[in-house]
């Protein structure tokens, strides 16, 4: 049975335009978005992790709360080699208590073959809390503070390592990256 990772963009795969660029970021890693926005800065290991998942047979989708033009411009540059199941934007979100929520129920309605085999990776607590409450697996991506260097961010590296050990090792990821309660 294939497993689906639904991954967020901003502050999960990288820093959104307007953020400081961490020390040690190679120019080749930067993604130009537009003259109004500037660069999106992918975190280290995100590309290699997602490409490895694809090789291992995982399905991958991107779901950002951004507007379609913004999302598509980043995704096409970030994952050019990966066939994504879908790329969703704010338009597929559900408005819940004034929040644009990525409801994984919407995903399994459209792709029922992934029922019980889907995990959201997102930095936003509200997204993880909502979906966890409704019985879905989530991994909350940590925010790397910018005093760090580009090469200090190991989140995606660790996810890739876990993927080799076990196809749906979300329990281990949850232990390492627990949802932060405020
Ligand atoms: Mg985000």
Q: What does this molecule look like?
A:
By secondary structure, the chain is of the alpha/beta class. The chain has one domain: Rossmann fold. Helix content is 31%, strand content 20%. It has 6 helices and 10 strands. The strands form 3 sheets. Strands 6-5-1-9-10 form a 5-stranded parallel sheet, sandwiched between helices. Helix 2 (68-78) links the parallel strand 5 (59-63) and strand 6 (87-88). The mean pLDDT is 88. Bound molecules: magnesium ion (MG).
Radius of gyration (Å): 15 Å
> What structural category characterises the helix and strand content?
alpha/beta
CATH architecture: 3-Layer(aba) Sandwich
Strand content: 15-25%
The unique ligands bound to this protein are:
magnesium ion
Mean pLDDT: 88
CATH superfamily: HAD superfamily/HAD-like
Which descriptor suits the 3D outline? Answer: globular
Low-confidence stretches: none
* Overall number of domains: 1
Please supply descriptive tags for the structure shown above.
182 residues; alpha/beta; Rossmann fold; 3-stranded antiparallel beta sheet; 20% strand
Question: How do the strands and helices of this protein lay out in sequence?
Answer:
Blueprint lengths: L3 E4 L6 E2 L15 E4 L3 E5 L3 H11 L2 E5 L4 H11 L8 E2 L5 E3 L2 E3 L2 H7 L7 E5 L2 H9 L3 E4 L14 H11 L4 H7 L6
Parallel strand pairs: 1-5, 1-9, 5-6, 9-10
Antiparallel strand pairs: 2-4, 3-4, 7-8
Helix pairs in contact: 1-5
The structure holds magnesium ion.
Please give a quick description of this structure.
The protein is an alpha/beta fold and 182 residues long.
